[in-house]
Amino acid sequence: MDLFLQYLANGVVVGSSYVLVAVGLTLIFGILHVVNFAHGEFYMLGGYAGITASTAFGLPLPASLAVVAAVSCLLGLGAEALLHRGLKNQDQTSSIIASFGLAVALQNAVMVTMGPQPELMHTELAYKAIELGPVFLPAPRALIPPAMLIIVGALFAALRWTWTGRSLRAMAQHETVARLCGVKVRRVAVITFMLGATLAGVAGFMMSAVYMVHPLVGNMIVLKAFIVVIIGGMGSPLGAAAAGLLLGVIESMTSAYLTNGLRDVVGFLLVIAVLLFRPQGLFGRSLERS
Amino acid sequence: MLKLENVVAGYGRTRILHGLSLEVPRGGLVALLGGNGTGKSTCLKAIAGLVTPQDGTVALDGRVINDVAAEDRTAMGLSLVPQGKEIFGGMSVAENLMMGAYHRRRDKAGVAADLEGVYTRFPRLKERRRVLAGMLSGGERQMLSIGRALMSRPTMLLLDEPSAALAPRVVEEIAEAILSLRDLGLTLLLVEQNVGMALEVADYLYVIRGGRIAFERAVDDGVGMDELRDFYLSGAH
Ligand SMILES: Nc1ncnc2c1ncn2[C@@H]1O[C@H](COP(=O)(O)OP(=O)(O)O)[C@@H](O)[C@H]1O
Ligand SMILES: [Mg+2]
């Protein structure tokens, strides 16, 4: 039982990073109908930006976080111009292929500038730990779930109760009527991409103190995020949040009680099952009804 | 107030309007009639900025607005109630109405006052203000769509078949709402399939055929149903 709780905690930590990545991915899909395969690179670059700021420049963590957010916003701005505005009049396949291209370009850019060797963020926090009964978590891990809850909670509150949030939901539900209300597509698109990139970038930043970051880390992350988005119901932020935690926990349990080799496979099996038996997702309640 | 001159517009390579001209005077209630698929909605979309004319001009208060984006025309006082009772199905009735005031969201007091105004006009919406708009009946959806348009404080309202697929009692309600809006000083352009209703409320009439205006007359000058029927039946477009 004690070990089970430890595995559960480990799963929630990793799952929290999935939530951050997947919520942004599902927003970009739900609001702009862009399938963004470069989303894993938002995570990867968040990790590198954070490591550079904190390790190379010795900035304190809050300042590093601000750097990560700034880099992510710029990245979101560029990605929007390329994948959304630039391809607005093309069909969806174009943006899918373009996002693949963007992913590869970003991977290689980082490979050239940072080198292929994996990096870990070193912080003072690593020497602290939190013990909750039988559960033991080093501080960099323990901070991830509460940080995720704060960020995602703030995001959902903003979507629900602010004019900007309302305009994003309006655009997801009915673009034409939203435009007739005076909502500018471009503004919504930029905000959505910036949000998505920042959520993923912050996840990559926080996780870079837990797992090594390398230029190709986004490949696996984006696949995980798509698994989460499908399980949660395409375009449903709440579903992605629930499914992200679920996937993290299931992976952790699989690795603990079955075999570690199945850890990265179990999610795909889950997706196949969901697509077969409940294609709208386990928690399907998309932006269109939120 | 609104003037279209030789507007040519369509979708991609398909041209639907072949040089359409019409005029709506300030405070007027003008009806635009025509058979199915003749381009009535396309005409309203050209006025609202959802389709861009390839030729000709759309002018509001003497200013050509061809290049103004749909998003910006709301703030100029133009508001379209689109065909099909389109609303935000996943938002509450109150949120739908709020969205109508998006372009003047900083005016908190004004938005709150206008919300009460819409509730007074359509008490059904007040009763159902917390309900998801997707759950509303057809009549309620139409009221919500009109209410949403009014929340932008328009000077000119474009209505696309507001009476379609509604029970006669509800059509009567909508017609009364339209007349009361006219009495408030709003300028209205009404597209209708329901000729009876259009003749009842409008003061001027256009009939569109083949992407052009084929007939126009002040309603007071008398318009025979037979005369109109000719335009519908003989009308290949
Ligand atoms: N979005 C669109 N894309 C392509 N063709 C369209 C579109 N909307 C309408 N049409 C075509 O344009 C013509 C006129 O449509 P519309 O203006 O909606 O007619 P009406 O409102 O008079 O019934 C129709 O033949 C219709 O098929
Ligand atoms: Mg129509």
UniProtKB/TrEMBL annotation, chain A:
- List residues traversing the bilayer: 12-35, 65-83, 95-115, 143-163, 188-213, 225-250, 262-280
Q: Give yes or no: UniProt keyword Transport.
A: yes
Q: Does the keyword Transmembrane apply?
A: yes
Q: Where in the cell is it found?
A: Cell membrane
Where is it predominantly found?
A: membrane
> Which Pfam family, any one, appears in the UniProt record?
BPD_transp_2
Gene Ontology cellular component annotations, sorted alphabetically: plasma membrane
Could you tell me the membrane topology recorded for this protein?
A: Multi-pass membrane protein
Entries under CDD domains matching the protein = TM_PBP1_LivH_like
Tell me the domain of life.
Bacteria
One GO BP annotation here?
amino acid transport
Sorted alphabetically, the keyword list is: Amino-acid transport, Cell membrane, Membrane, Transmembrane, Transmembrane helix, Transport
* A GO term, aspect molecular function: transmembrane transporter activity
The record's section on InterPro entries has: ABC_transp_permease (IPR001851), BCAA_transport_permease (IPR052157)
Q: Which family does it belong to?
A: Belongs to the binding-protein-dependent transport system permease family. LivHM subfamily.
Read off the PANTHER family from this record. AMINO ACID ABC TRANSPORTER PERMEASE PROTEIN, BRANCHED-CHAIN AMINO ACID TRANSPORT SYSTEM PERMEASE PROTEIN LIVH
Protein name according to UniProt: Amino acid/amide ABC transporter membrane protein 1, HAAT family
This chain's source organism reads Albimonas donghaensis
TrEMBL record, chain B:
**Gene3D superfamilies given for it?**
P-loop containing nucleotide triphosphate hydrolases
Report the InterPro entries cross-referenced here.
AAA+_ATPase, ABC_transporter-like_ATP-bd, ABC_transporter-like_CS, BCAA_Transport_ATP-bd_LivF, P-loop_NTPase
Entry's Gene Ontology molecular function annotations: ATP binding; ATP hydrolysis activity; branched-chain amino acid transmembrane transporter activity
One Pfam family this chain carries? ABC_tran
Name a biological process GO annotation.
Answer: L-amino acid transport
The UniProt record lists the ABC transporter domain at 2-235
| Keywords tagged on the record | Amino-acid transport, ATP-binding, Nucleotide-binding, Transport
**Family matches, as SMART domains:** AAA
On the tree of life, the source organism's domain of life is Bacteria
The entry sums up its family as follows:
Belongs to the ABC transporter superfamily.
Extract the PANTHER family matched here. ABC TRANSPORTER SUBSTRATE-BINDING PROTEIN, HIGH-AFFINITY BRANCHED-CHAIN AMINO ACID TRANSPORT ATP-BINDING PROTEIN LIVF
State the protein's name: Amino acid/amide ABC transporter ATP-binding protein 2, HAAT family
Organism (species):
Albimonas donghaensis
